[in-house]
């Protein structure tokens, strides 16, 4: 099946599944769940597409096994992110921007984690970019490991199984099967809505800061998460 990609072909879910199969999918899920370089990967649309293609017999792989492997990859990915964050600590907040690393992504994940606490590990699974950095921030703040692993498992299962099953369920509907290309484009658009909202908010804040004049000064960056808040006692 050929679909219209909304960006580079190597980010198109159908292309990725055709080229790398289920094991390439697992590597992408792992990378997006906890590696700094994985924040741009199309996790939501890829899981949805996997469920849809398996149900329509265009991807030959047992659905139950795909779901189990996806959940494991997501959980292990968050574990890697947590350990990385615990190792690098506050140094992450001093790392300079580069083509693949932006301090604003760390800031957003930090604010998200501070706002929602341990349950952010579940909520962040459904927010592109934030889901990559949140387990790292949990490690930076030395979140109690028992709490981390509990919410990590819950979030990994809800996201990995939930989005894949949604694609599989919709794939059983005749209208969806007859308009697979349109559905894949729609799920990609839906997955980037949070990113667009954050971009618009950031632009609005920048304009308000500029309108306030130079006397207002730049907004200071947030301090690294306090280790004591979620730390093990």
Describe this structure in words.
The chain has 233 residues and is mainly α. 66% of the residues lie in helices and 0% in strands. It is built from 9 helices and no strands. It has helices spanning 13-34, 43-55, 63-88, 103-116, 120-123, 130-140, 145-170, 174-178, 180-211. Helix 2 (43-55) packs antiparallel against helix 9 (180-211) and helix 4 (103-116) crosses helix 6 (130-140). The protein is globular. Mean pLDDT is 78; it is low at 1-7. It comes from Streptomyces koyangensis. Residues 41-168 form the VTT domain. Keywords: Cell membrane, Membrane, Transmembrane, Transmembrane helix.
Give a quick set of tags describing it:
globular; mainly alpha; disordered N terminus; 233 residues
SSE run: HHHHHHHHH
Shape: globular
Radius of gyration: 19 Å
Count of strand segments:
0
Q: Helix/strand-derived class?
A: mainly alpha
DSSP helix fraction: 55-70%
Characterize the biggest β-sheet.
none
Number of DSSP helical runs:
9
Transmembrane segments: 20-41, 61-85, 148-170, 182-200
Family: Belongs to the DedA family.
Keywords: Cell membrane, Membrane, Transmembrane, Transmembrane helix
InterPro entries: DedA-like, VTT_dom
